[in-house]
Design a protein that fits this description.
It is a single chain. The protein is of the alpha/beta class. The protein contains 8 helices and 13 strands. The protein has a 7-stranded mixed β-sheet, sandwiched between helices. Strands 2-1-3-4 form a 4-stranded parallel β-sheet, with helices on both faces. Strands 12-13 form a two-stranded antiparallel ribbon. α1 packs across α2. The relative contact order is 0.15.
Length: about 300
């Protein structure tokens, strides 16, 4: 059986793009399952799949995060990876789907877990917002704060991979808005599909304006994750994320990175940290480089091809 990919909420499980992509496991939160039930649930998953990779977003309730660590601690196993990937909710769901796609490849569980950090670099995540007055995820200037009080205000905000905020002008409805005073949020330089989810903002701007500007190869709408209004600090939003959809490209990205062995748990890893035990990659002896630092473990990874 492939490595199990787990989430803590069903709205982070996007539809499978093909019949080969396995579903994600939805772990029950403390309010739905007691500790004994959670231990039994996790033990059954480990017995069936061998390893469990759970995505643990930073916005989860403290009780849910504590439950995950408690279960792993009581089971005394190094076969559970808890990945603290900090992406907006819809982008997190896309990353989970990519991990599901990779789970049926010939990668070891350690490589799949540590690949999450690599793949997150290739996700462009943002939202069309009706207000940025309470937004603290992206730097917001005083003018943008002041303009948020206008009932017709709309802002195109990119949170990842680099923060970017643009005030839109125009009606905003049926794709009528356009960037005013600045360029559109910068998009990916490789082939992606765009996924979006509507909140309480009536606008077709994402599909009608942003998708063509980013030259995406496909557009799909999904329900808005329940945590998105809190993450973006407003319910008046349309969340979007562009990601690589092709599993062969994802495979090439991960396979192109040198694999190492974790000095603590012995599992394979890519990058500079083990996805299962979180131990850092043992640093090699310092070389005589004239004061220059060594490149990142993910440096030199080739760009995805169209």
């Amino acid at each position: 059986m492939p490595t199990a990919i787990a989430v803590t909420s069903a709205d982070l499980v996007l539809p499978a793009p093909d019949r080969h992509t396995p579903p994600a496991v939805v772990l029950h939160p403390p309010g739905q399952l007691d500790l004994a039930g959670a231990l039994a649930e996790t033990s059954a998953l480990l017995e069936r799949h061998g390893h469990l990779v759970a995505v643990v977003p930073p916005w989860l309730p403290t009780a849910t995060v504590q439950r995950l660590h408690t279960v792993r601690g009581i089971l005394e196993t190094d076969r559970i990876a808890l990945l603290d990937i900090d992406l907006p909710p819809l982008a997190t769901a896309l990353l989970v789907r990519q991990l599901r796609q990779l789970s049926v490849c010939d990668f070891s569980p350690g490589v799949i877990a540590s690949a999450a950090r690599l793949l997150s670099h290739y996700i462009h995540a943002g939202a069309l917002l009706g207000s940025v007055a309470k937004l603290d995820r992206v730097p917001v200037g005083l003018k943008a704060h002041a303009r948020s009080w206008s009932p017709s205000a709309q802002f195109a905000v990119l949170a990842h991979p680099a923060p970017h905020l643009v005030k839109l002008t125009g009606s905003g409805g049926r794709g009528g808005a356009h960037a005013g005073g600045g360029a559109l949020p910068p998009g990916p330089a490789y082939a992606t599909h765009l996924t979006f989810a509507r909140g309480q903002l009536a606008s077709d701007w994402v599909a009608a304006e942003l998708a063509p500007a980013w030259r995406v190869q496909g557009v799909m709408e999904n329900p808005l994750p329940a945590d998105s209004p809190v993450w973006w600090a407003t319910a008046k939003l349309v969340e979007f994320a562009a990601a690589i959809p092709d599993p062969s490209v994802l495979y090439q990205l991960v396979a192109s990175v040198r694999r190492e062995e974790c000095h603590w748990c012995g599992l394979e890893l890519i990058g500079d940290r083990c996805g299962f035990c979180a131990a850092p990659l043992a640093a090699p002896p310092p070389a005589e480089t004239g004061g220059r630092t060594a490149p990142s473990a993910f440096a030199g990874v080739p760009r995805p091809r169209h």
